[in-house]
């Protein structure tokens, strides 16, 4: 095995780690049970319901904060739930792009005190939603798939990283560098 957790600083930091050859494996697994795909099945779907088309979403990422859960799917699906209420609060397919995996989600309190979430997708987009009204507030496009975003503590900047050598710091209001 080539990976080792270092529990804390001190003597263990100075310990020599195993070197890995450039073409070598970082991890080796003895057993893999990934034949079972994570999904959200819903058995009470009916035409016109909020869940129409989301009967079995394959989950790619999710985030939980306070009383909210947001899950993202491999086809750009977004599903929101308030944990203290029954049922799904909101669901949408953010994009129809063939390369639309939701890579990451972040739930945060906006500068106005309203809960928002941000979704990063392989379709080169970053979308910001208001969780009070489940309304799309911003959609920023980039020239490469976006793997992760984080908003700064003052809510003025967003870090954007993806399938590119460099990350970006962009304005949270207009998405410009």
Structure described in brief:
The chain contains no helices and twelve strands. The chain has strands spanning 39-41, 56-65, 68-73, 77-82, 90-93, 102-109, 115-121, 125-130, 135-141, 146-151, 157-162, 168-171. Residues 40-54 have low confidence and may be disordered.
Order of H and E elements:
EEEEEEEEEEEE
What spatial order of strands do you see in the largest sheet? 1-2-3-4-5
Fraction of residues in helices? under 10%
**Count of DSSP H/I helices:** 0
Looking at the structure, what is the overall shape?
globular
Keywords:
mainly beta, 4-stranded antiparallel beta sheet, 5-stranded antiparallel beta sheet, 177 residues
Written description of the protein model:
The protein is mainly beta and 177 residues long. Helix content is 0%, strand content 41%. It has no helices and twelve strands. The strands form three sheets. It has a five-stranded antiparallel sheet with strand order 1-2-3-4-5, with no helix packed on it.
């Amino acid at each position: 095995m080539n990976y080792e957790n270092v529990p804390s600083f001190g003597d263990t930091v100075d310990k020599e780690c195993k070197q890995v050859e450039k073409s070598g494996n970082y991890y080796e697994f003895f057993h893999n049970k990934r034949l079972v795909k994570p999904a959200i099945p819903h058995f009470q779907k009916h035409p016109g319901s909020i869940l129409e088309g989301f009967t079995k979403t394959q989950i790619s990422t999710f985030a939980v904060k306070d009383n909210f859960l947001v899950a993202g799917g491999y086809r750009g699906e977004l599903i929101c739930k308030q944990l203290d209420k029954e049922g799904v609060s909101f669901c949408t397919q953010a994009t129809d792009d063939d390369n639309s995996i939701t890579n990451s989600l972040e739930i945060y309190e906006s500068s106005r005190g309203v809960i928002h979430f941000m979704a990063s997708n392989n379709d080169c987009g970053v979308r910001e939603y208001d969780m009070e009204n489940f309304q799309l507030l911003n959609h920023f496009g980039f020239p490469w798939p976006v793997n992760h975003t984080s908003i700064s503590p003052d809510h003025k900047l967003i870090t954007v990283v993806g399938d590119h050598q460099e990350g970006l710091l962009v304005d949270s209001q207009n998405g410009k560098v």
